[in-house]
UniProtKB/TrEMBL annotation:
Its main location: membrane. InterPro entries: MFS_spinster-like, MFS_trans_sf. It is a multi-pass membrane protein. Keywords: Membrane, Transmembrane, Transmembrane helix, Transport. The keyword Transport applies. This is Major facilitator superfamily (MFS) profile domain-containing protein. It comes from Polarella glacialis (Dinoflagellate). The keyword Protein transport does not apply. The chain crosses the membrane at residues 35-55, 75-100, 112-135. It is found in: Membrane. It comes from the Eukaryota. GO terms for cellular component: membrane.
Amino acid sequence: ASRTELRTAPKVVKVSYVCQAFIFVRAEIGRGFDLLRIPSFAAIVLQGVFGSIPWNAMGFLTMYLLQCGHTSQAAAAVASSVLVGKAVGGFLGGVAGDAIAVRCPRHGRPCLAQVSVLGGIPFVIALVLSAPHLAAPKL
C-alpha cells in the first residue's frame, strides 16, 4: 500500500441521535408485533383495549352521582375513594403480579389479570345499583 493510503483514516459515519432513536423505535415496534402473535398475549391486549373504555367513562362519575341526587360531599368522597383505590390497587397488583410470576412464570400474571378484572365487576354493579332511581326529565 502506498503512503497516502496508510495515512488516511477510514471514514466514520456518524448517525444522528434522531436516526438512532428511529432505528430503536422501529425495532421495538417489530418486537411488539412479534408479541401479538402469542394468542394469550393478544387476548390480554384486546381485553385491555375494551377494558379501558369504562375507565374513560368513570371521568364522569362525580357528575353521574350528582345527577342521581347525591350531595356534592358524597359524590366527591366516592370519586376520591375510586382514585385512591386505583392507586393502591395498582401498587398491590404489581407486587402480587411479581409474587405470582415467581411461582407460576407462564400463567401467573395472565390469571391474576383475569381475577382482578372479574373482581372489579361486583363493585361497579354495586355502584350502579346503589344510585337512586330518578325519573327521566321530560323534554
